């Protein structure tokens, strides 16, 4: 009789071991799936933070360049499409903003020599448009950013677009400068 109990006990031990292995495998699979998902979320958050920081820097530098510029001109390619804007801050210094091949860049030129260059990270499927509005008393430099968010759908009314623009007045830094007063001139 003792031998039968031992055999039954051994048989139940095998079932218990198989159950423990299957439960352990299920928990491991769920854990690995959660770790992979957490890694994907962390990567997405990191990319978003880098893009946000780059966008803030882009806004600040575009406004500073426009405010410091005495004049500006649009840059066109061979197809007459506007690909950038160039700010002339002094006789020898110019700052060029251009958008080509999904890349927005800022280049500082002193006497036709490149002294500094920046590239700005923008989200995928982004289009940048440069506008120079000289109808106002103070000319305005406008940088429009159009981004399709999410998958592109065939119906335009279902596309979710995100658009914003940066508007900056030219020569704003020079607005409050008074002209030099000569000896014979009265202030």
Class based on secondary structure composition and strand pairing: alpha+beta
Helix content: 25-40%
Alpha carbon gyration radius: 31 Å
The count of strands amounts to 8
User: Helix count?
Assistant: 1
Number of domains: 1
pLDDT < 50 stretches: 151-160, 175-187
What's the shape? rod-shaped
What is the straight-line distance between the termini?
122 Å
**Secondary-structure element pattern, one letter each:** HEEEEEEEE
Strand order of the largest sheet: 1-2-3-4-5
How much beta, percentage-wise? Answer: 25-35%
Mean pLDDT: 80
Sheet bearing the most strands, described? 5 strands, antiparallel
Short note summarizing the structure:
The protein is of the alpha+beta class.
């Amino acid at each position: 009789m003792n031998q039968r109990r031992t055999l039954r006990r051994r048989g139940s031990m095998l079932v218990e071991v198989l159950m423990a292995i299957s439960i352990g495998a299920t928990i491991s699979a769920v854990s690995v799936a959660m770790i992979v998902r957490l890694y994907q979320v962390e990567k997405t958050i990191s990319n978003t933070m880098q893009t946000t920081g780059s966008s803030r820097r882009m806004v600040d530098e575009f406004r500073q360049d426009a405010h410091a510029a005495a004049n500006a001109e649009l840059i066109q390619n061979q197809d007459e499409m506007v690909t950038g804007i160039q700010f002339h801050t002094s006789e020898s210094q110019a700052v060029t903003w251009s958008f080509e091949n999904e890349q927005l860049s800022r280049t500082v030129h002193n006497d036709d020599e490149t002294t500094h260059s920046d590239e700005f990270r923008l989200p995928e499927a982004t289009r940048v448009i440069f506008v120079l509005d000289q109808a106002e008393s103070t000319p305005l430099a406008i940088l429009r950013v159009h981004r399709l968010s999410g998958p592109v759908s065939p119906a335009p009314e279902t596309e979710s677009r995100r658009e914003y623009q940066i508007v900056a007045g030219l020569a704003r830094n020079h607005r409050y400068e008074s002209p030099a007063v000569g000896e014979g001139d009265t202030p």
